[in-house]
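Input record (one chain):
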Amino acid sequence: MSAVILAFADSMAAADRLGASLDLPVRDVAVHRFPDKEALVRIPASAQSVILYRSLDDPDRKLIELLLAASAARDSGAERVILVAPYLAYMRQDKAFHPGEAVSQKVIGGLLASHFDALLTVDPHLHRVATLSEAIPGISAISLSAAPLLTALIDAGDNPIIIGPDSESRQWTEAIARPLGLETLVATKQRLSDRQVSLTIPDVEHARGRRAIIVDDMISSGRTLVEAAKLLRQAGATSIEAIATHCLAHPDDLAFMAAHGIARIASSDSIDGPTSKAALAPLIAHAMRDNGLA
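The corresponding structure, as predicted from the sequence alone:
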């Protein structure tokens, strides 16, 4: 089956790395914006199997362009359209916490399932849902872990301590620390608002005299990391770093974290930026071959 990778400008560098790993051509999807902000999407090529590559940070804009590209691929003869979205948005809201709230995971998961034959992502932000297939029903929905790639970013020679900033981060801290034989601590978090949290770290005194590495699936504003860094400094940590699969932080957020003592931030290239240190292409390519998607 002939295949092509189609990517948008914001994901082109990472898509090129995947194309090299799969030995597939990569073509650029063109997007034109009309004065009223509507999008005109044009694909440069199609094939029997089309792999659309795009991370879904800034999701409200990107989702519409992505669905238009998927439709254009099918109209051009694609028999199979696969979405590779290393960062997948709208997965956190899996229930209505207050009357009148939309369950965005159900809405977006159903929307993607209706437009794609398969979907592959990395470390989706799932809570009460055990598998990605529950969130995106009816198609092959594959969730990969970036933990081995993030583990490779850690120099364990001086016995650093691994910190999870909340209970949901436990799975990542343990998966990254276990192969290196490192100790982990997991904080308890109370979220006060989107940019304000309260943290406690049980046994934080174990960080005294050691390099502390905060591990999570996602960094956005960085406020949680800054609160964790404050507690670790008070406990006597010699330095503080942060590692995450996805870094959505803007330059101002990165500067804020640096100003509050986080000396190094590293992430995968799910969203290309200054923190991207681990390429996901080999991991994604291997999974696509194993699942008959490439």
